[in-house]
Amino acid sequence: MISLHARLSQRKLSFDLEHSAGRTLAVIGRNGTGKSSLIGLLSGILIPDDGGSIVLDGQEVADPWVGPHKRPITLLSQDPTLFPHLSVLDNAAYGLRAGGMKKSEARERARSYIEPLGIGDLVDRMPHQLSGGQQQRVALARAIAVEPKILLLDEPLAAMDVSAAVVLRDLIKDALKDRTGVVVTHDMADISAFADDVAVLADGQVSDYGSVEEKMADENSMLRKYFLGF
Ligand SMILES: Nc1ncnc2c1ncn2[C@@H]1O[C@H](COP(=O)(O)OP(=O)(O)OP(=O)(O)O)[C@@H](O)[C@H]1O
């Protein structure tokens, strides 16, 4: 479950959002409407104004001392940002190692997340020896190897070419099964593939929220207007 009641007055943003556990939420909105800021609040990169509340899987995290590593979430962004000095296997094992797991166990666990992503033969490579699509798969393995309750995705396919995006979209869909997800996207294909619900940001707030099915059926919904223009 995600409950977000947070203001960022300097950015003129004010979010009120309740989202059920086990469902994936697509966040859409025009440039500058606050999508990255919302991801920043959930991931711990941004701290809300005093009085804000951010509850993730039952844990209140609005306090600045509940840093990103203490939250039940991981973030996959557009840029894979792998650690350049670590192999594919050690990149994928990073979160587990940071959580205190022994190296051999973390590597074994990481391998079990890497193989289903079709990059099992690349475990010993360094990031610079991978294509962008392969790097994003490693970043996905790193994000899910710690078994986060909530997976945030900030335009995860925006930098991919069409064929890499098609493969990764399926892998992300699998990763979101039985998990709470939040996906910032400008792409209807992502919404069709992953999203149960949609939040449309406008005027510094969540202007529309509901199930994708319901919003697509409603010809006056902001989702329809955003993508179809009628
Ligand atoms: N570091 C910052 N300091 C102050 N204001 C900021 C900062 N970053 C963003 N803003 C403002 O906050 C508002 C929301 O920006 P944000 O980047 O969250 O929007 P976005 O929907 O992610 O935009 P885009 O689609 O262009 O990435 C904008 O008005 C922006 O100018």
UniProtKB/TrEMBL annotation:
Keywords: ATP-binding, Nucleotide-binding, Transport. Residues 4-228 form the ABC transporter domain. GO terms for molecular function: ATP binding; ATP hydrolysis activity. It holds the Pfam family ABC_tran. InterPro entries: AAA+_ATPase, ABC_SmlMolc_Importer, ABC_transporter-like_ATP-bd, ABC_transporter-like_CS, P-loop_NTPase. The keyword Nucleotide-binding applies. PANTHER family: SPERMIDINE/PUTRESCINE IMPORT ATP-BINDING PROTEIN POTA (PTHR42781), SPERMIDINE_PUTRESCINE IMPORT ATP-BINDING PROTEIN POTA (PTHR42781:SF4). This is ATP-binding cassette domain-containing protein. It comes from Flaviflexus ciconiae. The lineage of its organism: Bacteria, Bacillati, Actinomycetota, Actinomycetes, Actinomycetales.
